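Limitations

Structures in this collection are predictions, not experimental determinations, and the ligand pose is part of the prediction. Treat each record accordingly. The example that follows, with iron/sulfur cluster as the small molecule, is included so readers can see exactly what is and is not provided: the inputs are given verbatim, and the output is the predicted complex.
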Amino acid sequence: MTKKIKKIQISRHIIQLILFFLLPGMYILAFSELKSILQMIVSGNFNFIQAFPGLMEFIITTVFTILMGRFFCGWLCAFGTFNDWIHIISKKIFKIDFKVSEQLDSILKYAKYIILFIILSLVFKGGNTILDGSSPWDAFAQISDLSTVLSSLTVGFILLVLITLGNIFIERFFCRYLCPLGAVFSLVSRMGIFKINKPGDKCGRCRLCTDNCSMGLKLYSMNSIKGGECINCLKCIETCPRRNPRASILGEDVNPAMASSFAIVTFTGIYGLTNLGSSILTQKGLSSANNVVSSSKSKMSNSNSQTAVNSNASQKAKYKDGTYIGTGTGFHGGTTKVSVTVSGGKITDIKTISTDDTPRFYQYVEGTIPDEIISAQSNSVVDTVSGATYSSRGLIEAVQNALDKAV
Ligand code: SF4
Ligand code: SF4
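Predicted complex:
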């Protein structure tokens, strides 16, 4: 392995580490936006301005993946990073190196398409909430608040444990076989401009690239790799002692380090600009209307939401005048602190003092939930915002915590 190529993998792990902490919810966002937009369309509530932030999030991630392949998976996704870390630890420290047979691997890879189909079918039938509490992604995102995960995401937590066990034995276990977003990316990334060429006539018999491929691809039988199951980790390029695999864009050989840098900078740049744009829209109130709220009020009886809301029957009682501070736990265990003002026995103002929640999620709930609570004069009849369930719960819990001090 040459020093130059090794640097690419070191860079990849550093970038993964940074983005794991800076943008931990990106993998949930892209998929939850797709679900939210489909829900809006199915329920007849689609409004372009209000759907814009989510729409852009999904379009940018998808268009980027169509053009450049799955750099998102190989370099940016926090859950993919988690997959990598678990496997690195098991391989380097515990010396576990299990290989799935090619036949079984090729069958198991279809599982993620079945999962994607089931989720989208449920969205179209309006039964998407059936899966609430069973997402291992959500359990992972909330893991710093273990007691909440165990109580409201029990199935998701069990799946997360099973996925972690799978990762110990099989590299990128979740990405290979189970990820619905990976299934979307695999389908759309086959026509892009980025490709890895690996002319078979220059190969020896070592099969080192195949043995080291993160996604278990049969590289020994391929002359080029373009999207699909490949996550552009570039390990095959670093592994080959003959430097046979080469990165190319539009058919021209490119330096793999340059190609990955270009991909990461472009994606995070566009992502940042979109977030800025959607924040401006939200601040102007254009995207704070109710259509990001789940269309069906029947969800109000959903037990998970009710657990987080922790409503009580005395909410209709008058509150003592004053301004009260409350805290709640939102997405990724982030603490949200609010001030609730009561005047004339009524809730008149709710302000966010601070939040450690993911801004992209929190901006949805901040533009929606306080107005709903004030108009209902109750915390218990407010639904969580679709696509930002945990941020909603954090805000609702914070308001409840403040109101508890006002009675
Ligand atoms: S396959 Fe899924 S979990 Fe894996 S890196 Fe891609 S989006 Fe993330
Ligand atoms: S083919 Fe190469 S770049 Fe693609 S997943 Fe396998 S090792 Fe990574």
